Amino acid sequence: MTDGLDILAQTIVTGNLVLVQGLGMYALTRYTRDVSGALKAGLNTFAGMLVGAALLWLLGGLAPTTPAPQVGFYLVIGLVSAMVAPCLTGWRASKEHHVVDTALIGMLLLMGQDGIAGVHNLWVVLGGGLGYAVLLVVMATIRQRLELSPIPKALKGTPIILITAGLLAIALLGFRF
Length: 177
Hints:
The protein is an all-alpha fold. The protein has one domain (4-172). It is 71% helix and 0% strand. It contains eight helices and no strands. Helix 1 packs parallel to helix 7 (119-147) and helix 7 crosses helix 8 (158-172). The protein is globular, with a radius of gyration of 16 Å.
């Protein structure tokens, strides 16, 4: 993973935060009711990821080496970037959205675990954020189409979305670069 476009392709498709990594399921179930809400949530999280990657790049030399303080360091960066992102995008979400933004915090933790540093932070976040936003929009579109379909009452809403996400995840597992 040294080429920027290679990193971008890997993080959008085979390292998708929601489908492959299992991060951001809260947003998948909550913000995919309509396409515009999904796009706003995806772009807000993408902006938070960019701010977090920039902070991680700038403060990377100050990161502790022991695991417990290191997790706290990434959580603080994630919280700061989650609070700054709505100011950049102009989207006013509830406070719970910032606290449970698992895709943002998980992305920072994965970058720290994999030892990604420097400009590679931005490539990974660009791919992860774009994959996250595109997935939310695609799932919102699928959810709107499924509302018009004859689906058993027990599967309407969140259950069918989770089943669909599982099928998409299985499809993405076939793509390995």
